[in-house]
Amino acid sequence: MVTLKINERNKLSHIAPEIYGHFSEHLGRCIYEGIFVGEDSSIPNENGMRTDVVTALKALQVPLLRWPGGCFADEYHWQDGIGPKNTRKKMINTHWGGVVEDNSFGTHEFMELCRQLGCKTYVNGNVGSGTVREMSEWVEYMTFDGVSPMAQLRQENGHKDPWKVDYFGVGNENWGCGGNMRPEYYGNLYRQYQTYVRNYHPDRPIQKVCCGPNVDDYEWTRVLLDTTFTRCPKDQHGQMDLLSLHYYVVPHNWEHKGSATEFTPEEWYLTLHKALYMDELIRKHGQIMDEYDPEKAVGLSVDEWGAWYDVEPGTNPGFLYQQNSLRDALVAGITLNIFNKHSDRVRLACLAQMVNVLQSVILTEGEQMLLTPTYHVLHMYRYHQDAHLLESSLENVDFTGIDQIRVPKLTESVSVDDQGIITVTLANLSATEGETVRLQLAQQGYRVTEAKIVSGEAINSHNTFEAPETVTEEQLKVEGLEFDLPAASVVMLRLEK
């Protein structure tokens, strides 16, 4: 038996809702068909946005959406995506499949989607192939409420009032597809470009996201921070609010990633082992950040995370369409538990991606839609948003795995909301063995008021359009503060006095 010890008297860091954010890039069928079908589509929609998809996403309480990329962001010129749709410029999406991008989904459409979702906006600017002026004018177009050329242009295009841009990314992956830059060079560009991301409304400030490292590139983090913090007033913290980190779980390697649904128990453990690596990345990059920013004024933004497999057979390799199995539910549960545990530094994260791309929460096929196992985990974990992390630990936890691939059998995180309701989330990483868990709290009198589980008959169980509820949320049987946690499962419990 494993004991989960919870000290509800010791509140730790605040879990920012934005940790549960999402990412939608102009990639494959993420936006076009997945989210946006146009006003004239036979698929039910509101202002072009799929009603079924928006309804499902609202149930997740999506706190934030990042757009338009990704690699696409640093070749995106925003003025191509405004004005009458029949006059918008077409372009080739060179990064993703070489398809024609007709720009029918642009700034106005993104803001409309966020309005429907009721979420915050995260816009990624173009440093790789854009200009300071272009970025500055985009910010002015979106947020300025006075008399100016860009404000007038916005009004001519049908939106009188400015929008609120909550987060603005100054470039994306500038170490790679965003320009193949060195950290010193990007750091200097960041200083220049961010200067012109104006806060026109001091009561509605834009939080600026600086392009941080890829995976374990600790040199990038150190050199970049040295460049941005030097000759910068201490209270301006390198002129950034957040530093990004990108990490994808790839079971094998970039040439052969592995199948999303056909995998061995060894590949199961290898994937989960790589998911756990997120903890080390946050700790080590965080230690470097602490040298420059000991007050933790700058948050870590893990604005691309998720599992990346080979595309489904017969699909466009550039569309990154993959299935989503019980294994991905575990990847999500593990990762979100890690984010919660590091919420003193991690302030924002975006699952890649929202619909039909990589580790999606929703898949569509024409008029059909299904919810993935990952969706159900995020739905269970939504209670952590805006709560406070509680001190917690697992006792008597064994390691599990095959041969040299060993992982802890269980991972957890615990939070409490303003009403005093405690949320417990647990993931059982074992492919074959269940575990009995007993909750031990500092005070007596707690009872379980809700208990849900995501599991499946096999480790590769997944939902299809023919069988869309193979993996879903089910009730978990709890006796007092004790319950059986099946193999390969993610659970959520709510406790009240």
Average predicted confidence as pLDDT: 97
Computed Rg: 22 Å
Q: In DSSP terms, counting alpha (H) and pi (I) runs of 4 or more, how many helices?
A: 9
User: What oligomeric state do the depicted chains represent?
Assistant: single chain
Structural class: alpha/beta
How many strands appear in the DSSP assignment?
Answer: 26
**Structural shape:** globular
Give the low-confidence spans. none
Share of helical residues = 10-25%
Compose a concise summary of this entry.
This protein has about 500 residues and is α/β, with parallel strands linked by helices.
Can you tell me about this structure?
By secondary structure, the protein is of the alpha/beta class. 24% of the residues lie in helices and 27% in strands. The protein has 9 helices and 26 strands. It has helices at 51-59, 107-117, 132-143, 149-156, 183-195, 218-229, 265-292, 326-341, 373-381, and strands spanning 2-14, 21-23, 45-46, 49-50, 64-67, 91-92, 100-101, 120-125, 167-170, 207-210, 242-249, 299-307, 346-352, 362-365, 368-371, 388-395, 399-402, 405-408, 410-416, 422-428, 435-441, 447-454, 473-475, 478-479, 482-485, 489-496. It has a 10-stranded mixed beta sheet, covered by helices on one side. It has an 8-stranded parallel barrel with strand order 2-5-8-9-10-11-12-13, surrounded by 4 helices. Strand 6 (91-92) and strand 7 (100-101) form a beta hairpin. Helix 3 (132-143) packs across helix 4 and helix 5 crosses helix 6 (218-229). The radius of gyration is 22 Å and the shape is globular. The model has no long low-confidence stretch (mean pLDDT 97).
